[in-house]
Structure formats: C-alpha cells, structure tokens
Amino acid sequence: MPPLGQATPEAPCYLNGEYLPLSQARISPLDRGFLYADGVYELIPIFARRPFRLDAHLDRLQRSLDGIRLPNPHPRAAWVEIIRSLVDAAPWDNQSLYLQITRGAGTCRDMPFPEASSTTVFLFAAPLAEPSARQREAGLKAMTVADIRWGRCDLKTLALLPNVLARQAATEAGCDEAILLRDGYLSEGASSNIFIVQNGIILAPPKDHHMLPGTTYDVVLELAAQHGVPHQIRAISEAEMRTADELWRTSSSKGVLAITTLDGHPVGRGENAGKPGPLMRRMHAWYDDFLNDEIRRNPLP
Ligand code: PMP
To answer: In the beta sheet, which residues pair with residue 101?
Structure first.
C-alpha cells in the first residue's frame, strides 16, 4: 500500500489488484458497470476496525453474483485479505467499506456478455456516516413513494436509479428516508428494511424478490427471538403501516432507527405519537449490546 496523504486523509481504494488513493483510480468508459449498471455491490460497515457480519455480506455478494451470472473473481480468503488491507490503510476506526464488481469492459458497446472481458473489482473505504443523536432520540421523517423497481430487488445490483430518485424526492420533502410501496404493500426503504410494531408484535415483510435481505433485518429478528418478543414475517399492507404503533428502519451502517413521522403524520398514538416507541427503546439497548459484543468477538480472521 503506498503512503496516503497524512494531512488530508484520502480514501484508500483497491482497483483490480492495485492499492491506490481514490483520486488516482481509473476505469474504462466501456466498463459495463458504467454503460449498463451490469454489476453488483456491497457496503460493509467497519466498527472499531472490525467488519459487521462479514460472512453475511460476502454470502449476499455471492447470491447477487449468481443472480446476474457473474463468476466470483476471488475466493473468500482473498476478499478478506483485500478488506483487511483497506481497513488497515484507512485512518478511521469506523468505516464504510464499499465493494463493487462489474462485468468489465468489452471491446465495444454490445449487450450480450463479451466473450473476453475481465471483471472490474473496486473497493474503497470512507468514514462511516453514523446516525446523529437527533435521529436516534427523535426518530426519522419518511415519505412513501411508489416502488417502480425491477423484479429482482433481492439482488444488490448497481441499478439504483429508482432508489436514487426516491431518496432525492424524500430529501426535497425534508425527509430522511423514502418507503417504497408496491401494489398496496410495503417493500422496504430506499436504502433500508422496514419493520412495523402492532400491539406489541414486530412484523417484518418476507424476504422475497421485492426487497433486499438485510443483514440488520436478520439481527433484529434474532434479537427479538432472544428477548422473547413476539414477531411475525408476513406481507404488510400500506394500511397496516399507516396505523402501526411503531415504524422502524434498519441498515447495517445506521443500525435500528425509529421512523416517527410518515408523510407528515406522527407515527403511533397517545403519549408515544411522533416519538420512538417503547419497543424501539428496548431494541436500541439490545442492538447496542449486540454491536459491542459483535465487535469484541469478530476481528478479521
Ligand atoms: N434494502 C436496501 C435497498 C438497501 O440498500 C439496504 C442497505 N444495504 C438494506 C435494505 C439493508 O441492508 P443491510 O441491513 O444489510 O444494511
């Protein structure tokens, strides 16, 4: 790894076998990731220089690669080595490690897979954007948006334009997240999974083709099971979401957060209306303990 600027730390990056500062990385304009969004990605949060559920992220990467018929360019041990090198090179303890694989560049712009192309493998580390104290204590504002994405939202592909447009609409409306609805049912957030709480029961939509199976989604259900909180996995209608006692957003970089305003209306009722609910407050404590425990237990192999 070449020395990286000390005064203004620059993101370390890996591109096709080389470690270099992000500003020096170059790819071909014929790269199919650029032309067709023909590729997949992962975002692995690093807490105290330890990756969050690395196996779950690398398993999902493999499922995404299989889903778009792209051979995995590296065995798992090589991925771990690349990730370790980047994490060590970056100056931050908490990082967001982005990993992208595309079908590379052919000799011209043509849709069928090129006969000879090598994959483009790109990773870079950045400081982790953690939720603010306000977001944790007061909860988030969300708005609903029609889910206009394709039929394989379970794959983490580069084709994020509908998510980008949804998040932009949310940002312009002063919201933190967009919640995607398809045919009257909840899919997920533009960059998160969504849970509701109804009469003390945690409800989560099933892992089908309409949502990305989140690593944090699994953690939340594991914690619910460990702490004896009733939970069900089933389709959640828009009406159920709008009348839920609590609404939660999960993602590995921001953890579990309450959504307390939905389309301008307070979530929940009575004294909890518009505030993180009682189950969220318990889940925050369980999740913090889990994260501390996970960090202690899981150094890079
Ligand atoms: N759905 C979408 C569309 C996402 O982008 C993310 C963030 N990766 C998630 C769900 C949550 O996944 P995870 O818990 O693994 O961060």
So the answer is: 40, 121
- What is the CB neighbour count within 10 angstroms for residue 280? 26
What is the Cα Rg of the chain in Å?
A: 20
**Nearest CA residue ID for atom 4, ligand 1:** 191
User: 216 CB under 6 A from ligand 1?
Assistant: yes
Bridge partners of residue 148, in order along the sequence: none
What per-residue confidence (pLDDT) applies to 3?
A: 44
Check if the beta carbon of residue 257 is closer than 8 Å to that of residue 139: yes
Measure the CA angle with vertex 36, ends 31 and 40; round to 5°. 80
Q: pTM surpassing 0.90?
A: yes
Q: Which residues are designated catalytic?
A: 156
Residue 237 CA to residue 240 CA, distance in Å, equals: 5
| CA 280 to chain centroid | 20
Residue 170 is which amino acid? A
Q: What SS3 string covers 267-283?
A: CCCHHHCCCCCHHHHHH
